[in-house]
């Protein structure tokens, strides 16, 4: 007798559960040596975040990138550099790190909602503007929120942002959804993700973002965080193309009105062919090249990156003071 579709689905789900019991962990490793808290967001779930608020001053929020083994470790050098001089926050985005990793409708709007709720509910309850730094694809998410709620942003720094390549990606939502559904089939979802996040694979892809080799501690953490139960859901949405915005330069970056800094050099996963055109079209955006880096300049030239961010923030402060005096 032929098995019915519900029976097949149930059997595949049991296979996935076995894979998770054998290979997965329920507890995510901590990325940063800092206080850790959780924020519950309706229809999204629990968002874990790190904070060092011992110093006074305007908060700075650091947003990790989006990739197969992403977590707040992506911004560790910046967190360590800014802590002690001002309040520093680093959330794990939904589906990554210490946040909930369950199946969800991962898309730009979900991440934008999560980021806005985090800013308002945790970082700036009185909705005073803060400084935000975003890495890679998360730059598109941060830009989306900055357009919708510019009053929450004092400055925005985008490190190796996506969406500025010579050929702007066009997202086909229906096609992306079909790819994601295919990737999520329980029979091969976990084994496929395990192959993608094997230590040799993780090391290979991280090494491409460094002139030399990726730090061993970075690779170690990326491998561990990819072993958490349900870790494949958000990365598969990323692989399927669900998290990108079509024509991000026009749709997002050209709409920014907050002081915005783009830090870049040579990136194996993105190019910046439209960056200078963006600067011409939007006077709120400026670019600074960090030579000798390959996508993660805050790891290879942290001092320069931190000082450039500080310079933007100081210039913005002086501009605000001039407006008040005028």
Automatic annotation (TrEMBL):
PANTHER family the UniProt entry points to: ALPHA/BETA-HYDROLASES SUPERFAMILY PROTEIN, ALPHA_BETA-HYDROLASES SUPERFAMILY PROTEIN
Database matches in Gene3D superfamilies: alpha/beta hydrolase (3.40.50.1820)
Entry-linked InterPro entries: AB_hydrolase_1, AB_hydrolase_fold
Keywords from the named record: Hydrolase
GO MF annotations, alphabetized: hydrolase activity
Name the record gives this protein: Putative alpha/beta hydrolase
UniProt xrefs under Pfam families: Abhydrolase_6
Positions of the AB hydrolase-1 domain: 60-307
């Amino acid at each position: 007798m032929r098995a019915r579709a519900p029976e097949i689905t149930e059997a595949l789900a049991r296979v996935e559960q076995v894979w998770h019991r054998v290979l997965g962990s329920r507890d995510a490793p901590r990325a940063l040596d800092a206080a850790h808290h959780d924020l519950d967001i309706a229809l999204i779930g629990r968002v874990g975040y790190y904070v060092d608020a011992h110093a006074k001053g305007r908060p700075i929020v650091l947003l990790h990138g989006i990739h197969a083994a992403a977590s707040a470790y992506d911004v560790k050098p910046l967190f360590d550099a800014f802590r002690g001089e001002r309040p520093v926050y680093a959330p794990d985005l939904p589906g990554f790190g210490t946040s909930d990793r369950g199946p969800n409708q991962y898309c730009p709007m979900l991440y934008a909602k999560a980021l806005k709720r985090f800013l308002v509910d945790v970082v700036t309850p009185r909705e005073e503007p803060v400084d935000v730094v975003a890495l890679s694809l998360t730059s598109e998410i941060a830009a989306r929120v900055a357009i919708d709620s510019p009053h929450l942003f004092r400055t925005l720094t985008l490190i190796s942002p996506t969406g500025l390549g010579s050929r702007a990606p066009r997202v086909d939502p229906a096609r992306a959804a079909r790819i994601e559904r295919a990737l999520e089939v329980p029979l091969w979802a976990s084994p496929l993700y395990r192959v993608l996040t094997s230590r040799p694979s993780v090391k290979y892809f991280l090494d491409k973002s460094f002139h030399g080799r990726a730090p061993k501690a970075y690779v170690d953490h990326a491998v561990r965080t990819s072993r958490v139960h349900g870790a494949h859901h958000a990365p598969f949405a990323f692989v399927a193309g669900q998290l990108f915005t079509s024509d991000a330069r026009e749709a997002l970056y050209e709409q920014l009105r907050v002081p915005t800094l783009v830090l870049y050099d040579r990136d194996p996963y993105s190019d910046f062919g439209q960056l200078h055109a963006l600067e011409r079209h939007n006077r709120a955006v400026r670019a600074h090249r960090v030579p000798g880096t390959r996508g993660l300049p805050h790891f290879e030239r942290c001092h320069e990156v931190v000082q450039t961010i500080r310079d933007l923030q100081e210039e913005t402060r002086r501009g605000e003071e001039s407006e008040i005096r005028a």
